[in-house]
């Protein structure tokens, strides 16, 4: 029992929001169940829905927790698998067997169907928590059913009266548990670590997990990773060849950029944009083909998407400190300020990359929603993304290193950028491109350049750090 208690504590420490939300939903389901038993039959569907949501949310947290616990080193602990089995048995007793007991006592209709659905909901949650890529395969099912709601209603009605439905649901539950638990119990060697400043988006959340946790990428993810690595190796070889031919400052800076930002070469940027474009196009064609979308919202979202890279810069630079000592010795700067300026100048390339990303996605969104005035969107996105990217780079270059501080800084940037974007969009629409765009550019770019020069001066005054971050 002590092991189960420790695992519950780990669950609360890792995903406190999901734990609190799951228990709140469960208490709400209990309250409405009492009202239902006291003579309110119309509350039965609400009770079932609340309990199902509570079980789903709780087991998403359980999957996320197990993903961080089931690392190769954990299997060296005595009777680790047995303790996990006991923990699972307690969880099944609480979320499946206990509600099932009430179902039999109350003699509810569709008892076998309810008994088969009770373990299905936790299996869905466990799969989505332990394997986030599962959403890619789960949501298309609901999208297809959304295209044919009448067929879905008829299918549900036939399933309620079919004796084979509970068996089919139990088989689906077993399949989901197999997909979620088998990778967790498999002991694998760790793959080579990627750069903390990689920008493929495939391992963006890996720094939030426990040290030693395998990446657990699927076949597609591994192939995409290999493709990104191939592009970075090609870009590095070109940079080395260029520096060999002409060892000047420009080629030296290019080498530093290829080292610090391996996946920000032209081929990798194009690959990243194409992948996102394919996903976004599928989403629009599948989900929004019957809805009207305000074009201005597209521009706001694309700017937020382009800025999502900069919080990773703060985390990645801290993780790379021990490796930066080799770069310092290789560059052999005359002063520490010279080394710091080299790093900040190398990272400045992220600003035009962020602008290119925002403009490309904005143009794609304008085409997909058939925007009446796409130039308005692109004009405002160009100015705001330039200023926002420069300001975000400045803040995260010298910003706080704690998780709370980073979150606060990121929220300040996002809310500020959204306020500037909507204000600028209205200003350009009301006063025209020349006056409105001029005022917007002077205010935003003036502020961003001031912040950048101040941040760069502060960064150059700091001593280089090569110690590994604590925790």
Can you describe this structure?
There is one protein chain. The protein is mostly helical and 471 residues long. It folds into three domains: 2-139 and 158-185, no CATH class; 218-291, no CATH class; 292-471, no CATH class. Helices cover 77% and strands 0% of the residues. It has 19 helices and no strands. It has helices at residues 2-14, 16-37, 44-69, 80-106, 111-130, 134-147, 149-160, 165-185, 219-245, 249-260, 266-287, 295-307, 310-319, 321-331, 336-347, 350-368, 374-398, 403-431, 433-461. α17 (374-398) packs parallel to α19. Residues 196-205 have a biased composition (Polar residues). This is Membrane protein involved in the export of O-antigen and teichoic acid.
What are the salient characteristics of this protein?
mainly alpha; 77% helix; 0% strand
Q: Outline of this structure?
A:
The chain has helices at 2-14, 16-37, 44-69, 80-106, 111-130, 134-147, 149-160, 165-185, 219-245, 249-260, 266-287, 295-307, 310-319, 321-331, 336-347, 350-368, 374-398, 403-431, 433-461.
